[in-house]
Amino acid sequence: MKVAVITISDRAAEGIYEDLSGPEIESIVKESYPGVQITREIVPDQREDILAAFASHRSAQADYIITTGGTGISPRDITSEVTAEYCDRELPGIAEVLRAESYRETRNAMLSRGFAGLKGNTFIINFPGSLKAVRLCTRVLIPIMEHGLKMLRGGGHSQHGNSPKS
């Protein structure tokens, strides 16, 4: 499995603060999938930079592109719109579950506008930018990643792994 993690933040891209969310996603994914190939990138909250990062990681055949940052309601938060524009198909269930699980931790999750979708054979999923949020969202996503790839590649449904806790 190939996973690209893109941190979308003007301040992190400028070196004003250290990106902690991207490395945290990488750590949790590697813990669950030891053989995974992960690349990380930091880009500013700019439409062209985000699109270029998506295209670059897709051309490198990433199975998953996970973004962190830019899902709020500030004027600079454009990750969700850019992702929706780029994707061919929406996966609303993923974004809905991420928000619902996040809401259990904070009511502020209602303000998250994260999007999830597919561009060809690549999943693109937006996470919020906070460290606490990426920990939770990554752990929510982990159990469906292999099954999602199998289904996208035309595999059948398995009898295992269908319960919410598996």
Summarize the helices and strands and which ones pair or pack.
Layout: E1 2-8, H1 10-13, H2 21-32, E2 37-43, H3 47-59, E3 64-68, H4 79-86, E4 89-90, H5 92-103, E5 116-119, E6 122-127, H6 131-152
Parallel strand pairs: 1-2, 1-3, 3-6
Antiparallel strand pairs: 4-5, 5-6
Helix pairs in contact: 2-6, 3-4, 5-6
Protein model, in words:
By secondary structure, the protein is of the alpha/beta class. The protein has a single domain (2-152), classed as Molybdenum Cofactor Biosythetic Enzyme, Chain A. The protein is 43% helix and 19% strand. The chain has six helices and six strands, in the order βααβαβαβαββα. The protein has helices at 10-13, 21-32, 47-59, 79-86, 92-103, 131-152, and strands spanning 2-8, 37-43, 64-68, 89-90, 116-119, 122-127. The protein has a six-stranded mixed beta sheet, sandwiched between helices. The chain is globular and about 45 Å long. 35% of the residues are buried.
